[in-house]
């Protein structure tokens, strides 16, 4: 068993030239498997509870000096949600004010295609994690900027799906069936 702990402290924290703390988050997602083991088109996203209360959100935290934004997204998803996967192209950058601290932040969001869900992770005793569909996630997510990132992700995935269906109408369903059977 590997011992994992969350990073703590702000000594490596990044701030922009206006003094705003820089944070990075991700939207962990997967496609639901059907009862026969094949992949369906149902998109699920993983939301987590905040540490201090039961408000739901996507994993996010400070971007530190010794890591890229993508590395920070991977770290936060592991620490807070207990998932590993592939970080995809950035969804965007948002400026927002923390409701609890009243301070300005600069936040970046990435999609994370989940490949592994861990049984044990650093913040498992502090947070709940829940897979849900996009509509449910939009309803429970407490941050407007994370909802915008979710909308961008859904639009991007739908666009990619349409492109694949147009370019490879018969190959796509055959390929998905083959991948699912592995």
From TrEMBL:
<dbReference type="InterPro" id="IPR047198">
    <property type="entry name" value="DDP-like_NUDIX"/>
</dbReference>
<dbReference type="InterPro" id="IPR000086">
    <property type="entry name" value="NUDIX_hydrolase_dom"/>
</dbReference>
<protein>
    <recommendedName>
        <fullName>Nudix hydrolase domain-containing protein</fullName>
    </recommendedName>
</protein>
<keyword id="KW-0460">Magnesium</keyword>
<dbReference type="GO" id="GO:0016462">
    <property type="term" value="F:pyrophosphatase activity"/>
</dbReference>
<dbReference type="GO" id="GO:0005634">
    <property type="term" value="C:nucleus"/>
</dbReference>
<comment type="similarity">
    <text>Belongs to the Nudix hydrolase family.</text>
</comment>
<dbReference type="GO" id="GO:0005737">
    <property type="term" value="C:cytoplasm"/>
</dbReference>
<dbReference type="InterPro" id="IPR015797">
    <property type="entry name" value="NUDIX_hydrolase-like_dom_sf"/>
</dbReference>
<dbReference type="Pfam" id="PF00293">
    <property type="entry name" value="NUDIX"/>
</dbReference>
<keyword id="KW-0378">Hydrolase</keyword>
<keyword id="KW-0479">Metal-binding</keyword>
<feature type="domain" description="Nudix hydrolase">
    <location>
        <begin position="19"/>
        <end position="154"/>
    </location>
</feature>
<keyword id="KW-0464">Manganese</keyword>
<dbReference type="GO" id="GO:0046872">
    <property type="term" value="F:metal ion binding"/>
</dbReference>
<dbReference type="InterPro" id="IPR020084">
    <property type="entry name" value="NUDIX_hydrolase_CS"/>
</dbReference>
């Amino acid at each position: 068993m590997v011992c994992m702990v969350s990073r703590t402290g702000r000594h490596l924290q990044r701030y922009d030239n206006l003094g705003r703390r820089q944070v990075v988050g991700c939207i962990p997602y997967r496609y639901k498997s059907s009862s026969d083991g094949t992949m369906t088109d149902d998109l699920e996203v993983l939301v987590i509870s905040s540490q201090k209360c039961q408000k739901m959100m996507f994993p996010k935290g400070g971007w530190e000096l010794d890591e890229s934004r993508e590395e920070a997204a991977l770290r936060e998803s592991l620490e807070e949600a207990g998932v590993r996967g592939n970080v995809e192209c950035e969804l965007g950058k948002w400026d927002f004010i923390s409701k609890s601290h009243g301070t300005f932040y600069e936040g970046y969001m990435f999609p994370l295609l989940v490949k592994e869900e861990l049984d044990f992770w650093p913040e498992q005793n502090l947070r709940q994690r829940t897979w849900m569909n996009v509509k449910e996630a939009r309803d429970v997510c407490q941050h407007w900027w994370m909802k915008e990132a979710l909308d961008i992700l859904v639009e991007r995935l739908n666009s990619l799906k349409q492109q694949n269906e147009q370019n490879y109408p018969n190959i796509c369903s055959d390929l998905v069936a083959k991948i699912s059977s592995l």
